[in-house]
Design a protein that fits this description.
Structural class: alpha+beta
Largest sheet: 5 strands, mixed
Helix content: 25-40%
CATH superfamily of the largest domain: Beta-grasp domain
Shape: globular
Radius of gyration: 18 Å
Order of helices and strands: EEHEEEHHHHH
CATH topology of the largest domain: Ubiquitin-like (UB roll)
CATH class of the largest domain: Alpha Beta
Strand content: 5-15%
Distance between the termini: 36 Å
CATH architecture of the largest domain: Roll
Number of strands: 5
Length: 199
C-alpha cells in the first residue's frame, strides 16, 4: 500500500492504495467522483479522460501512485468553466449525446483541443477527437458541436497555443510528477522499471 495525495478539482484527497491502483479507480472509489467513466480500461476508448496538470490523460492506464502531488480535474471540476459551458450547450443543440457514457471524456478532449488551438477544420477536429470512441455513433453531432464552439472562439480571437508541459522525471504520458519514492511500491508490486539497451 502506498499513501497517495492528489488534488482533485481543488480538493486534496489522500488514500492508502495498492501500487497497481489506476487513477480512474482512485477518482471513483476514493473521491466518489463517478463522472469519470471506465470503458475499455486499456486507454483506447477515452471515456476515462481527465485533465492532469493542464494536459489531458487516460486515467484508466495511469497509476495513481505516479500522480502523487498532481492536480487533476475531472468533468465535475469544469462546472463553472465558460468554455465547457459552451461545449455542453453545443453538444445538446447538435444532438451530440445519446447514451452519454462517452460524453465526459468527449467534452474534456474537445475543450482541450479548442483551448490549445489544435484544430481549425472539420478534418482537424475528426483527427483530434479520433481517440475518443462513441458506441452510439453520435460522431456527426459531436464534430458539429466542437466545430461550432471552435468557430465561436476563433471569431473572438480566443484561440491560443499552450506550451507543452515538461515531461522530465515523470511516469506516464502526461502530467505525472516525479515519483517521490513511489517506484519502491511499484517495484514491490512486481512492475519492472523500463529497461534500456546499452548496445
Amino acid at each position: 500500500m502506498t499513501t497517495t495525495t492528489i488534488t482533485l478539482n481543488g480538493r486534496k484527497v489522500q488514500a492508502e492504495v495498492p501500487s497497481r491502483t489506476s487513477l480512474a479507480d482512485f477518482i471513483r472509489e476514493h473521491a466518489g467522483l463517478t463522472g469519470t467513466h471506465l470503458g475499455c480500461e486499456h486507454g483506447i476508448c477515452g471515456a476515462c479522460t481527465i485533465e492532469m496538470d493542464g494536459e489531458i490523460a487516460r486515467s484508466c492506464i495511469t497509476l495513481a501512485v505516479a500522480c502523487d502531488g498532481a492536480s487533476v480535474r475531472t468533468i465535475e471540476g469544469f462546472d463553472d468553466d465558460p468554455l465547457m459551458a459552451r461545449l455542453r450547450k453545443a453538444f445538446t443543440e447538435e444532438h451530440a449525446l445519446q447514451c452519454g457514457y462517452c460524453t465526459p471524456g468527449m467534452l474534456i478532449a474537445a475543450r482541450d483541443l479548442i483551448h490549445r488551438g489544435a484544430a481549425r477544420t472539420l478534418s482537424d477536429i475528426r483527427v483530434a477527437m479520433s481517440g475518443n470512441l462513441c458506441r452510439c455513433t453520435g460522431y456527426a453531432g459531436i464534430i458539429a458541436a466542437v466545430k461550432r464552439v471552435l468557430d465561436e472562439e476563433s471569431a473572438k480571437g480566443a484561440l491560443n497555443a499552450q506550451a507543452g508541459v515538461d515531461g522530465a522525471a515523470r511516469l506516464g504520458p502526461v502530467g505525472t510528477h516525479a515519483l517521490n519514492g513511489a517506484y519502491d511500491g511499484i517495484i514491490a508490486a512486481g512492475i519492472p522499471r523500463k529497461q534500456t539497451s546499452s548496445g
